[in-house]
Amino acid sequence: MINNIKALFQDEKQLPDHFINWQPIKQNYYLINGELRIWDGMLQDVRSPVRVHTASGKQQKLVGEAPLLSEAAALEILEVAVLAYSNGRGIWPTMSVGARIQSVQHFVAAMLQNREELVMLLQLEIGKSLLEAEREFDRTVLYIRDTTEALKELDRVSSRFVIQQGIIGQIRRAPLGVVLCMGPYNFPLYETFTTLIPALLMGNTILLKPPRFGILIFQPLLEAFRDSFPPGVINTVYGEGEMVVPPLMSSGLVDVLGFIGTHRVADALRAFHPRPHRLRCVLGLDAKNPAIILPDADLELAVSECIQGSLTYNGQRCTALKIMFVHRSIVDDFLQCMSKGIQSLKCGMPWEDGVTITPLPEPEKPAYLEKLVEDALSLGASVVNPGGGVSSDSFYYPALLYPVTSAMRVYNEEQFGPVIPVVPFDDIREPIEYVVASNYGQQASIFGQNTDLLAQLVDALVNQVCRININSQCQRSPDSFPFNGRKNSADGTQSVADALRIFSIRIVVAARETEANREIITSIVRERKSHFLSTDYIL
Asked: pLDDT for 184-229, tens place per residue?
């Protein structure tokens, strides 16, 4: 197995032409105040998790370079965003909803022209398969379009006046201020845009901090950002997070933190803010989503969903299934089918057709996974599938662990990689107690046919997690559904409609219902004297 894995890394001459001919991107600039400003300081190498055999030996392919901004540069970018917002009186926050939508549509048109390069960067920089990279790009575009449509509907509802108890009022939504958007490396495009786009559309100004991996994903979009939005509305912050982000938060000038990552980092960032009560947080955090397989489950369906749920993009998804509770009466059959299913998965480089298991972008991840497996083995578990847990450089072959107990690290830790712990149970109270005691509360999947048992599980879990999937894997889609979590898994609800609301605040303009006030309001509206007080209706 180790030789097979080592052989996955190809000779330079075996790469597809578009990868052989790839010219590393030298991004020695960043977006600030509507200009691509040259950075004459240090740059960081951005290397692919893909290793390539060359005449000099096996090497990580160089994707390009990106700026390592200083604290002073980051604070200047923040100042630009603050000035662009101008206490809510800047060009962007006072712009009509229709005009903001047109700007976003202009951006999408430019973004579509860069599809091929963005898909290639997702493969090169984070090891995402061609199919998954294409899906991420296309889903991002669909999310943007759905969000603009949701905003039109929200604005239509807000365009009318309400008269209650002798008070005339119009209730509309207003922006919050400066938003710091920090997406994750596993979905650097899609997940970042699920905060950035609604925050933009609602009139906020943006500081975009790319993730640790996936830095260059945004390089092809910088000109589109510059050309689609007024100066200072979107600005990019590059560099080491530990250096540039704490000063931004410590300034107290960031009004909203849109962050997707671990709860520990989120807590640390929030603690830097001098006025945390004034900081709105939109957080997508850790998860340890369980699958619960009941004795009467359709085994073929359950195994298929569990393999996809635990190993799509190497299990590097917050919505991945990260622990399996299987009834003891069927656990042997489940393990046998899972092992066969894992063996059938294609391993290889991101550009290969039908590949599922690809190199991991985090250099430290294989060693971490090895320690999790070693800990489980020392406490009585076994690796069930042939070759499970074998690794070479950035590649880690999936490990199916059984029996896993509460004494093992993998029972509680979010592995965020291709390790699948399986726990046998005799009574459904056992997995229920696990979910209740867990620090995480995003989702759960339950597999079975007995409606009494399924109903019992639903009722037990509905106040522990935020989505229960019956006979299907955990997932975020469709984007119209709420996406949130309890405990350490999230803060705030994300979906197409919910995100628009969470990046804005309801404002009421009200007056007593008198003839004079009617005339005043009518005059303001009819003569379009106010951007906010309006009955314009977007079709």
From this structure: 999 999 999 999 999 999 999 999 999 999 999 999 999 999 999 9
CATH code, domain with 328: 3.40.309.10
The structure tokens 């712990």 sit at 421
Residue the block writes with tokens 């800990």: 375
Same domain, 274 and 295: no
Please give the residue range of the domain that contains residue 237. 13-284
The domain boundary residue, chosen from 267, 284, 301? 284
Encode pLDDT of 13-57 as tens digits: 888 888 888 899 999 999 999 999 999 999 999 999 999 888 788
Shared domain check, 272 and 169: yes
Nearest to 10 by CA among 370, 389, 355, 365: 355
pTM of the model: 0.95
Section 59-81 average pLDDT? 96
Q: Distance between CA 245 and CA 134 in Å, rounded? A: 31
How far is residue 112's CA from residue 120's CA, in Å, rounded to a whole number? 14
| Shared-domain flag, residues 257 and 354 | no
Mean pLDDT, the chain, rounded, equals 95
pLDDT, tens digit, for every residue of 431-489? 999 999 999 999 999 999 999 999 999 999 999 999 999 999 999 999 989 999 999 99
Pair (360, 376) in one structural domain: yes
Spatial separation of the C-alpha atoms in residues 494 and 142, rounded to whole Å:
15
Measured distance CA(463)–CA(345) in Å, rounded: 36
CA separation for the pair 131, 298 (Å, rounded): 28
pLDDT band at 68 (very low <50, low <70, confident <90, very high): very high
319 or 9: whose pLDDT is higher?
319
Residue 495 phi/psi, 5-degree rounding, is -165, 180
Which residues lie below 8 Å from residue 440, measured CB to CB, with a gap of 6+? 286, 287, 288, 289, 414, 485, 487, 488, 489
Count how many residues are written for the chain. 539
How many CA atoms lie less than 13 Å away from 438 in the CB half-sphere?
32
Q: Which of 348, 446, 400 is nearest to 49 (CA)?
A: 348
- The residue whose two tokens read 């619960």 is 292
In a shared domain, residues 413 and 308? yes
